[in-house]
Design goal:
The complex is a heterodimer of chains A (474) and B (394). Chain A is of the alpha+beta class. Helices cover 30% and strands 21% of the residues of chain A. In chain A, strands 1, 2, 6, 7, 8, 9, 20 and 21 form an eight-stranded mixed sheet that branches. In chain A, strands 10, 12, 13, 14, 15 and 18 form a six-stranded mixed sheet that branches. Chain B folds into two domains: 110 residues, no CATH class; 252 residues, no CATH class. Chain B is built from 15 helices and two strands. Classes of the chains: A alpha+beta (474), B mainly alpha (394).
């Protein structure tokens, strides 16, 4: 088997790659999957995910009420500001309504939403144990079905004959041929040099991307994405766009995942290094706003900010992984943070004076707001006046990038509008077709699952067709 | 760093006066606290077991919280294999291992009398010495009383080797002491964790739920019913099933002895009982079940993923499994060999195993069932009360 040419070669080892490998294998193709990471780090960013955004017209096991195609589509339209492809988006949405039985057959378990995430009980189906449990289940199923898996096999380049895929070259120098290929190797978010280049230099002379943390895998270097674009594959998306949130500045450079998020922004104020507020912290519920704060912090001097709360907020948000900086006075807090003390005190005093406190309710868009303050805080505005005071440092945490390869509904890689007969792409490498900007929870996995399955099916069909014609010619 | 943190906590508690003494955490407890801080910010494992839902009711993890959570953990391995922060991640989260290490420490800490807690620490040695001593005791008594270990007894009655009253006088006190020691230990554990688990009193629905969790080994089902982990990331029900065989085998044997005691004292029906009798049916079924269960658990334990639990406790686990196996296998052998000249020898072997088992009951793996049941009961009580932490997102 190993000496014989494989039907379908899958490059990548996360959700999209595994979905492609499983579908291709189920379609009768022989499959070889090349994962760049060692086994302990397998699964790309999927190991950090936790749910799938699912369309459903009626309550469905762990999903309550209904989440119709139209509502899902409107949500996508809203978060992307129209930077999406309706045809592909609706394809993803519809696929999300009927993929879960297939996922279950491959060992994925779903559960009702986690505590702290009840706001997505209607829209998102949670993986029991999170994305790593899903990835483990898919690898087990793939092994059982006879998919060959090679870890620590990063691919350096794809060899093409016009639009046709012929082989890949691994970084170790091996040439591996196959009848068809699925590229599902992730975005370029772990490639700090590329991020630097994509974000460029700002008006302060800073290179903002140098201060980004990468929430996920260190293996998404974008090697093949760059090579394919160079080779003339049609690309889509802005390289500076991606899913980026504000995370704890003390998070590790890679793989900080979910736990490094800071969820108290809407309960206090956020100041930058100059001790100034810069955005309405109470604009909307935090789950609807967390995805914009990464970019907001990226625009601040030194790409750092501080979420400031007082004793009143304790216990009202998901506990942070690192303890906050604590002080009994605001002066003390400013000193510990190294902020300009008078400036910080003025910012807080101005804010406190502007607060119009009504009936505080952090579970509703309440009537506590500021008056005559710029920027305003439109909800949950209460004076920061009760010691002890806490501060959490924030930095932009990039989850994944949206620059990708343009596709149609066959997931085929295209060259000047011409689809390749045997090269397909799925996951982050093409998510930008649906997500031009913005993000909404669980949609990355919906895209990866839908297009991973399509790419696997198409790759198997292409490989088997080629095999048939080879036999016919022989 | 961790020790420094513990010292700082102590300093704070001292500064706050005698009413707010926060006990210093051990290294193992500090590690559980550190990991729970990470888990509480993630919560992906909430569906697996009782530990994570209990965790979400807390923002800080004091000594009693940690003892409670550690004994709630069944070491199923699900959260380790699903963990994005497990080694080689720098956060090095391995909840089953951290919990197991604290559990081992709680067994020592809550042993009664406290001085005997050390028996947990070199448990393989403890069990070996107990077995050797018990065997010597019975062999020596048999030789002293019968002059020989070989020779058939009329009608296969083992009271001709050791009179009933002698056996009662030997086993009765050991059994009662074991029950007392376990009760004293778990009572102190209960008192310590009660304030940390809402302080609310016991109630019937909570007791029913905890009993269900214990009797079905609910938390070895993975939360989805496919089971827990053993050697790798695949789910298996074998651990649960072999534990059931062991647990219910033990209970059947215990029931056999209890019924026989009743027969003896209430009705004057003296052992040995023939096969269709209740004690014999219970004993044989229990013995076979125990042999199968312990053999299975031994095999699974030997194949267990090395990152599950605390490797230092393997001798305790395996020693207890072996002793249960020896007890049940020797019991079955005694029944099968009752008419042969090996009766006295087999009897000594069986009684020695039983004696060693009961003498070490409060200082070995058996304790896990008692402490875990107590933790499950506190959890069932606590979870019925509203979550004290009100998260905005909910």
């Amino acid at each position: 088997m190993s000496d014989e040419e494989v039907d379908v070669l899958v490059i990548g080892g996360g959700n999209a790659a595994l979905c492609a490998a499983l579908m291709a294998r189920e379609a009768g193709a022989s499959v070889l999957l090349l994962e760049a990471a060692p086994k302990a780090w397998r699964g790309g960013n999927s190991q950090h995910t936790r749910n799938l955004r699912c369309m459903h017209d009626a309550p469905q096991d762990v999903l309550v009420e209904a989440y119709t195609e139209e509502e899902y589509w409107q949500d996508l339209l809203k978060v992307t500001g129209g930077l999406t492809d309706e045809h592909l988006a609706r394809l993803v949405i519809r696929a999300s309504s009927n993929c879960r039985d297939w996922m279950r057959r491959h060992g994925v378990h779903f559960q009702p939403p986690l505590s702290g995430a009840l706001h997505v009980a209607r829209t998102n189906a949670f993986f029991m144990g999170g994305g790593k449990a899903l990835v483990n289940a898919y690898y087990r199923s793939a092994e059982r079905l006879g998919v060959q898996i090679r870890y620590e096999t990063p691919v350096a380049s794809v060899e093409l004959d016009g639009e046709r895929f012929t082989a890949v070259h691994t970084e170790a120098g091996e040439r591996i041929t196959a009848r068809s290929c699925v590229l599902a190797a992730g975005g370029f978010e772990s490639n700090r040099a590329w991020l630097r280049e994509a974000w460029g230099q700002n008006e302060r002379g800073e290179w903002p991307a140098d201060n980004f943390l990468i929430r996920g895998t260190r293996f998404n270097q974008g090697v093949l994405l760059r090579q394919m674009i160079k080779a003339g594959a049609d690309a889509i998306g802005d390289p500076s766009q991606g899913h980026m949130v504000a995370i704890d500045a003390r998070a590790p450079l890679f793989d900080g995942g979910i736990c490094t998020r800071i969820d108290c922004v809407s309960l206090g104020v956020v100041v930058n290094r100059e001790a100034r507020r810069f955005y309405d912290e109470g604009e909307d519920f935090w789950p609807k706003r967390y995805a914009i704060w990464g970019r907001l912090v990226a625009q601040q001097p030194a790409q750092v900010a501080y979420s400031i709360i007082d004793q009143k907020a304790v216990g009202r948000f998901m506990p942070p992984v690192f303890p906050g900086t604590t002080a009994d006075t605001l002066q003390g807090l400013a000193q510990q943070l190294g902020l300009d003390e008078p400036g910080f005190l003025r910012t807080i005093a101005d804010y406190n004076a502007a607060c119009r406190v009504g009936r505080f309710d952090h579970t509703a868009l309440d009537d506590c707001h500021t008056e005559g303050l710029a920027p305003a805080k439109t909800h949950w505005a209460r004076p920061i006046d009760t010691a002890p005071f806490y501060a959490y440092p924030l930095r932009p945490g990039i989850t994944f990038t949206y620059l990708g390869l343009k596709v149609d509904d066959t997931a085929a890689v295209r060259f000047g509008g011409q689809p390749s007969p045997n090269l397909f792409v799925a996951g982050e490498m093409m998510a930008g077709n649906v997500l031009g900007k913005g993000y909404t929870a669980g949609v990355g996995m919906s895209i990866g699952t839908a297009f991973g399955r399509i790419a696997g099916t198409q790759a198997a069909a292409a490989a088997l067709k080629q095999k048939e014609s080879q036999h016919a010619n022989a | 760093m961790q020790t420094l943190e513990a010292l700082a906590r102590e300093a704070v508690s001292l500064a706050d006066g005698p009413h707010r003494v926060i006990p210093i955490l051990s290294t193992a407890e500090t590690e559980v606290g550190r990991q729970m801080q990470i888990c509480n910010a993630c919560r992906y494992c909430e569906g697996f077991c009782a530990v994570f839902p209990a965790m979400t009711r807390r923002l800080e993890f004091g000594k009693a919280d940690i003892h409670f959570l550690a004994n709630l953990c069944h070491n199923c391995g699900a959260c380790l294999h699903a963990c994005q922060y497990a080694p080689p991640h720098e956060f090095a989260v391995n909840v089953p291992q951290a919990m197991a290490q604290v559990r081992g420490q709680t067994y020592v800490d809550y042993a009664w009398p406290p001085a005997l807690g050390v028996l947990y620490q070199r448990n393989g040695l403890t069990l070996s010495l107990a077995l050797a001593a018990a065997l010597v005791l019975f062999l020596a008594m048999a030789v002293a009383m019968k002059g020989s270990l070989w020779g058939a007894a009329p009608g296969g009655t083992f009271y001709s080797v050791f009179p009933h009253n002698l056996l009662v006088s030997l086993f009765g006190p050991v059994f009662l002491f074991a029950a007392l020691a376990l009760a004293m230990g778990v009572r102190r554990f209960w008192r310590d964790i009660t304030p940390a688990t809402s302080g609310a009193p016991l109630n019937a629905p909570a007791a029913a739920e905890a009993a269900d969790a214990v009797l079905r080994l609910k938390y070895l089902d993975g939360g989805h019913g496919d089971g827990c982990h053993n050697e790798d990331d695949a789910y298996t029900l074998s651990r649960r099933r072999f534990h059931h065989l062991t647990f219910y085998g033990f209970m059947l044997c215990f029931a056999a002895t209890s019924v026989a005691t009743l027969y003896h004292y209430a009705f004057g029906w003296v052992a040995p009982y023939a096969l269709p009798s209740l004690p014999k049916l219970l004993g044989v079924a229990g013995g076979i079940s125990l042999v199968l269960g312990t053999a299975g658990l031994w095999h699974l334990n030997r194949k267990r993923h090395p990152m599950h639990g605390d490797l230092a406790q393997k001798p305790m686990d395996l020693g207890f499994i072996a002793l249960l196996f020896l007890t049940s296998a020797s019991g079955l052998a005694l029944w099968l060999g009752r008419g042969t000249p090996a009766l006295a020898l087999l009897l000594c072997l069986h009684l020695g195993a039983v004696m060693a088992l009961f003498a070490t009951l409060p200082y070995g793996k058996f304790g896990h069932g008692i402490f875990r049941s107590a933790a499950l009961l506190r959890h069932a009580i606590e979870k019925r009360l509203p979550n004290p932490i009100g998260l905005g997102a909910d």
